[in-house]
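[Q] Does anyone have a clean structure-token version of this?
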Amino acid sequence: MNQIKLRWLVVEDALRDRQGHWFEYVSTFKQGFNDLGDEVTLLADRQAQPFIIQALGAQPVLPQSIWHRMGDGAGVLTRYLRVPLHGLQTVMAVGRYLRQFSNFDVIFVPTVLVHHLLGWVYLIKRQIKKHPIRVILFFPNAPVVHNLSDNTYTWTPSPTTALLRFLLKSLTDEVNSGKVVLGAETYAMQRALTTLTGLPFTYFPHPVAPLPAPEQERAPNSKLVMASYGGARQEKGSDILFQAVTKFRDRYPHAPVQFILQCLQGFDDERQGLNNNPAVEWITRYFMEGEYAEYLGQTDVMLLPYRPGSYALRVSRVVIDALVNGIPVVVTDGTTLAEQASQWGAALLCDSEDVYSFVEAMGQMVQQQEKLRSRAKERMSTAQDHFSVANFKRCYLYARNLESL
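[A] Here you go.
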């Protein structure tokens, strides 16, 4: 695989600041492709903060991302009008760039929503078809429901979903010819989209760079650190988490456990019993540069009570951070997080939206910590290989029939 050198154009309009994991995500690709001998050019939001441009050499030419506007409370009409508007802005920005620079082998679009797809279909059929460039359109999320009762998939009914289905169907020839590779970052999403569209979606891992090995082992009698990172949200089961930690402290008041919980806003009622608890450290802001890695380095267990209604198909970077660093997890059954953690790490499963089940799983983690941490460490190298840029590239070459897995 390393004999095939590629020139990548990575187009990510959500790359603007430290919100979300976009900076870490794109940084991983930049470094990973460079390590493989490939060349990487990054396009970012035109409002990208200076450190993004300096750290990654990103070129700020893209329109403001839809991701940054999702929670602005806009009305229905405004949200619908953003679809053609963002598509047009994408065509103008990317089209202008490709007219100047087109010497790429692959264009990788890591975040494709219907807003982006409208513009990319136009670019692929009108401009990119003139060049021997291949395009990876990557769908981290889609308007799809996984019916867990009978293991079937259905589209979420809406005008934008209908447009998405039409646009995907319009790319049939380009997908069949290999000009376009459609990607998803969980096996569950790959199965769902392949089933619903009739088009072949390729599974691509979500690459995460592992932390460097610690210079020294932690003290044997130190407290077990259980943590949950990322902005607290309903779909992540943050209400379940905070209630469960409160009940855990009530049930096991002398358990040698320290909690580190990140919550930027909200959930005041659920947090009330924990605000002055010395066994809980709160992080109420976004991480500064290098800070997330420092916290991961001191984490023994990751707590992830995510709801299957939102994460039956989607990936969470946090669980992959745990897997590649040998951290066992407590996670909700029926989510992609549980599937990945059971395959590439060590996990204790809890029932969906069940506070007491989550408390019980945390208690089991305290009792079985040595065994589970050992299992997570044993599988760590396999997780690191799977969730790597090298494997991402291998999946792309396999989809192009250029490499055998």
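[Q] Thanks! Anything notable?
[A] The mean pLDDT is 90.
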